[in-house]
Amino acid sequence: MAKTRRPIFRESAMKQYLQKREQDILPNTVSPPFFTYGWLVVLLLVVAGTLAWSSEVPTFMTASGVITAQTANSNAAQAILFIPTQQATKVKAGEVVQLKLGANGPTRITKIVSVRPGVVSPTDARKLFALDNGAAQVITEPSVIVTVGLDQSISTQTFAGTTVNAQVQIGSHSVLSEFTLN
Question: What are the tens digits of pLDDT across the range 95-117?
Fold first, then answer.
């Protein structure tokens, strides 16, 4: 009598093995939370780039000047700034100015009151404003004269003839332009 061959594996185990082979198996290289965090980082980079593209940063130039009286009878002071001719076209009335009075004096933020038309030589500026030797040192080249109003806390008696260093806002530029190569 011939012996029937019995398989060495059970029939249910073979079915299960074949079903697993037929299923689609995705590689487990990236976990779902990591995939979500990756898209979140990409989204944040896009938002940061958009903000950097649209945000503006003020542009400043430096100038020197001196404090004088507004009128002979007034106790209020004004600052006269001497803007080099190369940058004079960028300056206009109403621009923001940050003034530092003297070497260790107070700092004030104010606005340009007027821009005098024409260019003045250093000699003419010294005569026009009767500047002494110390204050005359701030004028080193032909300049455009800019008048800046000061508040009442700065009196002519205290600060007249004091030199000032100014940061004049002359415009703005994009944040991204800070990262461009010159």
Answer: 888 888 877 777 888 888 888 88
Backbone angles phi, psi at 133, to 5 degrees: -60, -40
Name 69's Cβ contacts closer than 8 Å, sequence gap at least 6: 75, 76, 77, 78, 156, 160
Residue 117 phi, psi (nearest 5): -70, 150
Show me where the domains of the chain are located.
57-174
Q: How is residue 37 written in tokens?
A: 């965090």
pLDDT of residue 43: 96
Amino acid at 21: R
Are 58 and 171 in contact, with CB atoms under 8 Å apart?
Answer: yes
* Residue type (1 letter), 10: R
Cα–Cα nearest to 151, from 83, 97, 102: 97
Give me the residues paired with residue 62 across strands. Answer: 167
pTM above 0.85, yes or no: no
- How far apart (Å, rounded) are the C-alpha atoms in residues 106 and 155? 13
Residue type, 25: I
Considering the domain 57-174 in this protein, what is its CATH number?
2.40.30.170
Which helix (H) or strand (E) element contains residue 179?
Answer: none
20 or 148, higher pLDDT: 148
